[in-house]
Structures are given as structure tokens and as C-alpha cells.
Design a protein that fits this description.
The protein has helices at 44-51, 101-104, 114-119, 154-157, 163-174, 191-203, 215-223, 236-243, 259-268, 307-318, 334-342; strands spanning 7-11, 19-22, 33-42, 63-64, 68-76, 88-91, 125-126, 129-130, 137-140, 146-148, 183-187, 207-211, 228-230, 249-254, 269-277, 298-300, 326-330, 349-353. α5 packs across α6 (191-203). The protein is globular, with a radius of gyration of 20 Å. It is of the alpha/beta class. The protein has two domains: 5-162 and 305-353, Medium-chain alcohol dehydrogenases, catalytic domain (Quinone Oxidoreductase, Chain A, domain 1, Alpha-Beta Complex), CATH 3.90.180.10; 165-300, 3-Layer(aba) Sandwich (Rossmann fold), CATH 3.40.50.720. The mean pLDDT is 97. Bound molecules: nicotinamide-adenine-dinucleotide and zinc ion (2 copies). One zinc ion binds at residues 96-97, 100, 102-103, 111-113.
Length: 355
Amino acid sequence: MSTGGTRAVRLTRWGGPPVITEVPRPVPTGEEVLIRVEAAGLCRSDLHVIDARPGSLPYRTPFTLGHEVAGRVVEQGPLATGPAVGERVVVYGPWGCGSCARCAAGAENYCDRRPALDADLTGTGAGLGRDGGMADLLLVPSGRLLVPVGELAAVQAAPLSDAGLTAYHAVATVRHATGDGTSVVVLGVGGLGHLAVQILRATTTAQVLAVDVREEALALAERCGAHFGTLPRPDSAAVLRDRTGGVGAVAVLDFVGSRSTLELATGVLRAGGELAVVGSGGGELSVRKPGVLPPGTRISLPFWGTLPELERVVALAREGTLKVEVERFALSRAPEAIEGLRSGGVRGRAVLVPD
Ligand code: NAD
Ligand code: ZN
Ligand code: ZN
């Protein structure tokens, strides 16, 4: 572990590459809490952020990347509440206004003041327009954004705050449609998808069918409890439909969101089914009646998750139900981790640890 260091992986200009630089040690004031980072996950959204066209995201550069963070509370502002100095925590990543009805209910991912915050370029949260946790230290606006993790390993805890939480929230969105004899299709078994498979197995009785372009991701899906996995092929919709007993899937969780996955989703959904689009793969779907979507389809665009859901995800991990497949990289090797994710070389989640 670095001692006095405050290194940070910074996005200094749109298009990147991010650079590792020394930054001043943050000092918590007011309600703020300072975390010594023990692990920070790398998400495909980080690539979307790095690659964003200037002006397309409501963020100001430079800022430190990293929105999946676990660590230890080391210092608190004079008005801080929540976990005490010394406690190990995971950081809830979407930072809302903290006072609207949604934030009061712990759903800062759907903060009512988000449009106003975006207009002011306030940032969406840790590592998304605000300084995040790919760093030695992370300044968190308030203790309300921290969930204790006890002795859970940091590399397990960090990915829970996005890969785990977002997958949990997406499953929660479609869970009402599941039951004995139903099938759910998971498209993309990477960081989010492999946890979604585990969460589906732990919290529903549905059959889980997985699709990924990589054989090793399908092997991971199987280890996570998927009943069937396939590479996308021209006949995938028919093959998957066949696996559902011919009726189609009650839900599709699309962790890719590309044109081809959305097309596959429309091909496997049962009438009255649920399509949850989680991935930001740039695909588009036209909504028209009648159109490509089966009658009765409900579409959702789940974004991250709520604080109470993060508490449940942490509980699932602490009881051993949820296990993150982790590839560790030293913080100083962040550029390598980013390139590895880009080229499809990461199994599960790449997680940066201090060196
Ligand atoms: P990841 O790279 O770890 O996983 C993506 C997986 O999809 C990989 O295994 C990849 O092989 C697979 N894949 C790619 N193209 C495919 C295709 N055509 N068919 C089937 N599988 C395919 O990424 P991740 O970190 O799990 O993130 C997944 C997506 O979710 C990203 O677009 C990310 O930006 C988005 N995301 C959204 C939210 C949200 O709140 N909505 C939160 C986090 C991430
Ligand atoms: Zn993310
Ligand atoms: Zn709010």
C-alpha cells in the first residue's frame, strides 16, 4: 500500500487515455468522509465515458475515474454521520441531491434533481464527472453513501456497488414476471451479467439462458448457475425459444444494448414479457404498434440501483451467495486493465488494487 501517496487515474481530456497523476490529498469538510481505497472496479461504462465525444456527457474534465469502490473510512468532516473512522465500507456510486423524495428513499440513482445537477455539470457520482475511486483516496460527499462490508474482501466488495447493484436492480425490475417453468435470457455475461445470473438463481425459480460472444464468458455463466449458454448465431432466437418450451422468455436482461442484442431480445420475448436494457451499446429499438416487439412487452431502462438494494447485495455477498469473478490489477497498471477490458480479455470484473 502507498503511504503518503495520492495517486489518481484521471480523465484529462475526452477520448483519453486516462493518466495516472499525483493529486493533493483531499481534506473532508462538512459532511464529507475520506476513504482509503482498497479496491476499485473497472466497468465498461468507464470505456463509454473515456470514449465520449466532447459535450456528449454533462461532465467537466479533468476528473478521477472509478465508480465501484471499497475501502476504509480514514477521516470525517466535522458534520459527518454514518460509518465511523476505521470501518470498512463500499461506496454507493450515484450521488444525487440527497434531499428530494427519491433521494430520501435511498434511490439517488433516480434523483428528481438530476436534470438540474446535470445542467450545472455537477456529475452523476463517484468517477462520473466527480473524482472517483481509481485512486489512493476518495472523498465521499456524505456518510449516507456508505454501506459497511465487515470482513468481506475488498476486491469482492467494490464490484458490488455497480456490477452487483445494477444487476440486482435489473433483476428486481423483472422478478414479478418470473416463476416456476419460466425462462429469463441474459445477454452479455461480463461484469454485470455474471452477477445477474447468480442473482437470478438466488432470488427466482426461472430457468436462466445466457448468451455471450466469448466462450470463456459462457463457461463463467455455467459456473454461475446458468442452465444453458450459447454464442449468438443466426438461429439463436429459435434455439433459445426452443429451450423455453416454445413460449419465449418472460424477461430478457440485455447487458450489451447493441442493435444485434436488441434484435435477439425481440426474437425471444414472450408476449407480455419484460425487456430490461442495461447496456449502453448504442443500439436502437423502434416502439410501434404493431411492430417488432411482441404484444404486451414492457421495456425498462434500469439505471444503477438504490441504497437499500446495495445493502441486500452486500448481505448476499457476505453470506456467500454472490461471488464476483475478479481479475486483479495494480492501480499503477490501470491503463493495461482498461486495454484488457476493451479487447475482451477480462473475465468477470477487472479490479484495481493499491500497489
Ligand atoms: P463487460 O464488458 O464486462 O460485459 C459485457 C459482456 O457482453 C462481455 O462478456 C461481452 O463478451 C459480451 N458481449 C459483447 N457483445 C455481445 C453480443 N453481441 N452478444 C452477446 N454478448 C456480447 O461490461 P459490463 O461492465 O458488464 O457492462 C455491460 C454494459 O452495461 C455496458 O454497456 C455498461 O456501460 C452498461 N452499464 C450500465 C449500467 C446501468 O446502470 N444501466 C451500469 C453499469 C454498466
Ligand atoms: Zn458502471
Ligand atoms: Zn435527489
